[in-house]
Amino acid sequence: MSTTLFNLQHDHIAHLQRAYSDILTDHGFDSLAIYSGHTSVHFADDHAPPFQTYGHFMHWVGLADVQHSWLIIQPEKRPQLYLYAPADFWHLPTHLPEEPWVAAFDIHLCSEKISPPLTGKAAVIGDIERLPTSTQKALKAEHHPERIVYALDELRMFKTPYEIACLREANRLAIAGHQASQAAFIGASGELDIQLAYLAASRQRESNVPYQNIIGLNEHAGVLHYQHYDLTAPKQRYSLLVDAGRRFRGYCADITRTYAGPDAPATFGELVTAMHGLKDELVKGVAPGVNFLILHEQMHHHLGEILVANDLFKGTAEQAVAEGVTRAFCPHGLGHSLGLQVHDVAGLRHPDGTPAPAPEHHPALRLTRTLRPGMVVTIEPGLYFINMLLAPLRNTDLPINWQLVDQLVPCGGIRIEDNVAVTESGFANLTP
What we know:
One of its GO terms (molecular function) is proline dipeptidase activity. The chain is α+β, with helices and mostly antiparallel strands. The protein contains 12 helices and 14 strands. The two termini are 20 Å apart.
């Protein structure tokens, strides 16, 4: 790992120490214990699902699979890391990498699961409810105080240069997977084989992906969170949608690409090109002081223009938006905050922690903030042919070209997604 990244991580940890000290002091706490969390076995089984470390714990150590461990933060003192590392020949115990950042912590390797030592007025955050009752009672602290959690969520909304570097590298690694997926699609592979090509090229196992990859061929591209992988390739190849990510030191890439297949109507390929252009136009609109809701509304206006230009709607773009036509073709929000979690924290809250819910007409929008330098967001316009959403419009006299829509339904839909950092002067697109 480069010296530059280690220096950035050193500055990142120093930034967290200052910020946490201020937050704890402002709220009258002497110490804070952060629980990493732990996985649990499936019901009536002895196997557990993949695990992800609690985000506020990961914010400090950058390790996504630490379990049964504690981090104790006190103002003006070195952070104390109690790392659960039992002697075990069944599994490889957790261990810290030999990297300079480890020296910023007082490390305690624990062979047993512990209750963290707390002093003064203490708070504890994390998945405390899943700890044994006896451990919960032993924690002489305020459990999950909202005012502390909201302040830490807000802190995570603004990424340090180290975090931006990690997100950029996660994107670079994910792009290799996307390129391999496209090649597999050209080679007439099925969904499972495309997924395996993605994993191999992005150098990760399926249990390590930040979210379950969406690999949708044909009509499956119109299922927004399509969750299966067909084993065989379809006889006709209309489209491929790949929504797939990668972690780097805990930080997530979240990238989507859509490709027209050899059997797709010519209009579908033209729509894919148009949606790339729309994504690029919206990325250029990312800047400090811009309300994300305004960008979302711009997406719908431009989507209306695309529907009109491609003869899908024979009215005006303004009519398509006003009558809810664009919402039927794109039911999700423009994007969300991105970081240690794919849908990162604080996107639907004001800086003071009060709710900032999505508007009534756009209930799926996950980010309602005014953009500020240091935020990282996804920009992911979509255009889908989903019968369930389009069916109510068939009973109206809206000038929709249903003949063309029906030709495009087998293609499923289109989504193009980049990861974008807000800078002091505008934006930096982290997706190569």
